[in-house]
Amino acid sequence: MFETLPERFRTYDLKADVRTLMILRQAIDKGLVKTLGDVYNVLKGIVVKDPEDMGPFTRAYYDYFLNIDIENGDTLSDAIARSETFRKWRDHKIEKNEIFKTLSDEEQINHFLDDVHLSQYDIKEIIAGRDIFDKNPGDKTDGDEESMDDIRERLLNKMADYSDMSLEELLDRLDEIAEQQKTKHSGGDHWIGTGGISPYGHGGAAKDGIRIGGTGGGKMARMVMNDRKFFPVDMDSIINDDNVDAALASLKGVIEDSAQEVLDVNNTIKNGLKRGGLFLPEIKNLSEQKLQVILLIDNGGYSMDPYVYVIRELFKKMKTRFAHDLETYYFHNTIYDRVYTDVRRRQPFMMDRLLSKDPNYKVFVIGDASMAPYELNRMSLRSYFRLKKKFKKVAWLNPEPEKYWHHTYTLNVIKQMIDMYPLTPRGIEKAVLEMNKKSK
Amino acid sequence: MADKTFWLGSDKYLCDRQLAQAFHISRTLGMPLLIEGEPGTGKTELPIQYARDLNLDLFVYPVGSKSNVEQFVARFDHVKYLRDSQIEILNAQREEKGLASKLTTGGRDPENLSDYVVNGPAVNAFKSPNSVLLIDEIDKAPREFPNDLLYALSHRKFILPESGEEIEVSEENMPAIIITSNREQELPTAFKGRCIYHYIHFPDADTMKGIVAKHFPKAETKVVDVALDVFYHLRNLGLERAPTTRELLNWLKYVKNFTTAEAIEKIEKLEGIGTLIKTQSDLEKIQKNILDPRDFQKRSTPN
Fold first, then answer.
1. Staple B146 to which of B191, B233, B262, B281, CB 3.0 to 4.6 Å?
2. Which A positions 381-420 lie with beta carbon below 8 A of chain B?
3. Mean pLDDT value across residues A236-249
4. ipTM score of the complex?
5. Radius of gyration (Cα) for chain A, nearest Å?
């Protein structure tokens, strides 16, 4: 059942696969899923793996199960109000009880959300309820609250007849219906949207389902849709204040530490001899903390100006989190025989000295690699060549959008020597992944 | 049979509905619950309070940068093993020299390898049915740790080193496993995939009132209201390190020693703000933003 779910959820950039279905099925078998709201809760636990997934997840859920399409920048209320599902649901509500018409749009939507997320009726009811609803089309005239309850009572009693159907069977039907809704937009078969959610309100026969209690079931969903932090940052846009944290997250991957215990041979022998030949193994912690980063920043030329600040922010943040080696140097357009230790480029630092550093340093060069062809002379080429040769891990991060790269001659020359990545969170992530590959 | 009823918190602990739900799902499915969220939102409290409330055994594994799966599951104590196995020779030598005193192995028998297996919290939890296992701050662990954990957790089985003993737990007796993370490091996707995930949102003012009431049942509503007002105001300033629930509770602990009027005055004067604000730059920002602390007074007593 729900075979199409993983595929659909993946179009929202969520990680859903066969395992998702298996766990969902397990949850159903164990009685965790009794209502549509339960489906939301269980799936959330399985599919959402980051607060940023919450937004896309909520959208995917409303799309898949309720046929409500929440567009970018939509509030949940708008999307619901626009949807066919809601319209049908409301028509039914009004049909049943005229008073419902007098409620404001906002209140109606709240009711709708409560029905979706809170309703305590069984999924069995959704299916069975439809049949009964079809057979009892005349009950709508009575608006009196009390007699509505009576009717509901009666219907629930009748529903016992359906209880021999397995939940799975019913869900299968539900799934079919969801599919039908997709292909056939109108027509009377909007079970999930209309028959499913409306006719019996909170009359629930479900007893053990997990329920969101208390105040407003759609509260969470609404909160999610209104908050940018529940949506992924654009991993492909050039680093800015918004996604600098995401970039940092990928940069953290540079750390290579491991906790391994190894035999300390020297001490074992030394102490063993002292004990007159009783050798007790001495253990030492082997830890490799290799976050040694050299940062070479091109801060010359107007083209780089907009980026210098964020780049420094990025690495500053990194430095405060990890008190390891981070060395920053600056250059103008291209590297000749020296770089500079200060932003104004007054304090030269010779390349020879830089090249005498530990080869385990990871080197990030940040620059647009765009210069006049004559600037990239032999000396400069040689510097890049030596840099690449000396340090095992060198990556060039370019703030220029990747699609323009082929226009620049010097960029392409450099790119052939040093791996180049766009200066975006994703680009950094790639560079870091490449760096972390075990060196041959 | 492990307890699978829906747990909603105790008289000491207000469990967020969403969290309670995720916890319930994870226990029913026998999957670990991975909780992420801002520091100080009560991630660690859940298993502790749950175990206390239901009187279950709690096993904690605090993760550090040197954590490895051996410490978590079980390790073989090579040093003791070698020592004990050499003791016999030593004792013989001593006897030769006429020394009466003998070294002892403390009841351990080098023939029996399982005497030298030191069990970690994971094995202990798996051995006691219906217990609670907390893996605290997994984001502090070396990168391979979560992945190493995967196998053990998803197969509900550990194989002890050297002795080869297998510790297995049935699905029913699976301990409730709670893993917390402060998101200082991304966890591997495969690992997250094996867990039920829950992100704790920072509680809103109403929920916070409930939390405060659980901790300080006798606190004056007025004091709490004023304190929360200040607290959320501070949080909205966009500080580098926004104060969290834990810090709010500490602050209230400080002011509760005074009478209501005194307490309110102290809160409004931001006395004891050191419990809330932890960096110099934040402190400066607050001084810049809140020129007149009496603002709070005006807002909290509108008439």
1. B191
2. none
3. 65
4. 0.77
5. 32
